[in-house]
Amino acid sequence: MSEIRAAKRGLGRGLSALMAEMDIGSASSTETVKDRMLIPIEQITANPDQPRRNFDADALQELAASLKQRGVLQPLIVRPHPADDGLYQIVAGERRWRAAQMAQLHEIPVIVRQMSDTEVLEVAIIENIQRADLNAIEEAASFRQLMDRFGHTQERLAEALNKSRSHIANLLRLLNLPEPIQDMVKDGKLTAGHARALITAPNAAQLARRVTEKGLSVRETENMVRKLAQPQDAQPKPTPKSGEKDVDTRALEADLSAHLKMKVQINHPSSGEGQLVISYRDLDQLDHLCKLLSGQG
After folding, report:
1. Is the pLDDT of residue 201 over 50?
2. Which of 34, 249, 256, 294 has the smallest CB count inside 10 Å?
């Protein structure tokens, strides 16, 4: 399908076309008449692979009140159910479907598309990232699915979703945290910034509880983790003038190292000039680095 191919070339632009986000009438009249229809709400089922698991009850109530007054203005995207004739499975628009049920609507507008399971999952993930207020863990899990199942790189996701690569890389690191901490982020007890500060802590779950109990800020959490990581010597060793590197600096080092495939160190003092040190393994790597810096790589 042209819409799916467009989504894979440029995810954001492809999704807008698929969702008929602009104007349904902008599509050809033949396609609009053929594909858009009103169907009974009981003939629509949710997608069991929907990446979003949590739907805010208050937000659904507000949407239901709006739908009760004005109806469903933007059609859902559905496909014929792969196992049950006469039913349709949601590709995009589950929030509207849930709210429509709460508003006791009998019929809702849909656009029918023929899609494979893989295409449905990809579109559902992209829709959630772009449309819904996912928590940091859900967003990270969505990025991971797009990368693992569809081969998208961090760079491609960043460009297509209009997000920075460091944003995507930092969120993906949250998936390395213990499950209890991920649950705290999902429940809103910890911010993504707090969770990132705990990534390198060996006793992260215990520290996370301390953070919530004392109401520590992100900076206070970073300082706590840094102090616990220092050796408990009677005579503390002198620290370099630049001080300990914060989480963002370490994350940037990791991003640059992954991009260049060389070790990168950033020495960034609180004031004055800093240093960016790139270590190469051999002359071939040095040649590759020179080409990258001159714009030939």
Report:
1. yes
2. 294
Beta bridge partners of 275: 267
Phi, then psi, of 46 in degrees rounded to 5: -75, 160
Is-contact 174 251, C-beta < 8 A?
no
In 212-297, where do the E strands start and end?
Answer: 263-267, 275-279
- First-to-last alpha carbon distance for the chain, in angstroms, is 34
If DSSP codes are grouped into helix, strand and coil, which group holds residue 137? helix
Burial letters 103-116, b for 16+ CB under 10 A, else e: bebeebbbbbbebe
Active site residues: 94
Tell me which amino acid residue 241 is.
K
On whether the pTM is more than 0.70, the answer is no
User: Which domains are present in the chain?
Assistant: 2-133 (3.90.1530.30), 148-229 (1.10.10.2830), 247-293 (no CATH)
The amino acid that residue 116 corresponds to is S
Q: Which of 81-90, 123-132, 265-274 has the lowest mean pLDDT?
A: 123-132
Residue for token pair 């507008």: 109
On whether the CB atoms of residues 36 and 109 are closer than 8 A, the answer is yes
The predicted structure's pLDDT at residue 19: 37
**No. of helices (H) and no. of strands (E), the chain:** 15, 7
What H or E segment, with its residue span, contains residue 255? Answer: helix 247-260
State the residue for tokens 């997608």.
47
- 3-class DSSP state of 278: strand
DSSP-H helix ranges across 174-215: 179-186, 192-197, 204-214
Q: Which of helix, strand or coil describes residue 92?
A: strand
